[in-house]
Amino acid sequence: xxxxxxxxxxxNKQPVLLYExxxxxxxxxxxxxFSNPRFKMDTLVFDTFKYTSRIIDLSGNLASRSATPxxxxxxxxQCTEHCECSSGVYGAGGTVxxxxxxxxxxxRECNENCECALWCGNRVAQKGAMYxxxxxxxxxxxxxxxxxxxxxxxxxxxxxxTGELIxxxxxxxxxxSTFLFETRxxxxxxxxxxxxxxxxxxxxxxxxxxNVKVANVSWDYDVIQLIHMCFYTDKLIKKGEELTIDYGEAxxxxxxxxxxxxxxxxxxxxxK
Length: 272
Fold this sequence. Notes:
Layout: H1 5-11, E1 16-19, E2 33-35, H2 45-48, E3 50-51, H3 99-104, E4 107-108, E5 133-139, E6 143-148, E7 157-160, E8 164-166, H4 168-173, E9 180-185, E10 188-193, E11 197-198, E12 205-206, E13 212-218, E14 228-233, E15 244-245, H5 249-252
Main location: nucleus
Keywords: Chromosome, Methyltransferase, S-adenosyl-L-methionine, Transferase
InterPro entries: EHMT1/EHMT2, Post-SET_dom, Pre-SET_dom, SET_dom, SET_dom_sf
């Protein structure tokens, strides 16, 4: 059959650059946003979105801590394998060699009071993202997504989930928000809300077969430590490949729509 001119033109439209750098210099690299002329996407989110590479503590939960140091090392230069600050998850080059070990417990990195060098191999997530990514219009159903701008090796830290740190009462009021991520400060459970403030990780989509894992990481010197929600690649991710995480059963429990991740292992095709 002859392909219609309108169909051919529509299918060959090129992505449009909406923003050269939505991070406004907050990252080491630009974070561009690309729309797709084939899809009608909600772009208003970018007009009201405040980009931040760190957690915003409007409630003062972090500022009110005791400032009592803990886990301070005295290593010269590079930390040794016996350093009390190290969780032993990082190998050469700062990548994770055993993803199961990453998920066992909180990953502890050296902190600002440690005497080791800034280039110490146990300072990874605290330095921020190193590999460039871009936000793109995935489709009208899943909305915006994030994809790699370069090849990213297995076990690489790619970003921390940031946003506004809120308590349980506020989290209950905002329970319908899609962008809530539970965390802890010491023994207290808090929530990170990235609806209006956050970074590019806020746009990462769910997949039942994700290529990125979420781990608990801490690099605070205070004994009451903030648990950072950090993302690591679970495979070699090629340039142009979408980054995905597993939102978890608790997130899907309140959703009335079906998952459209397209995975052969999809667990939420019927919705809730």
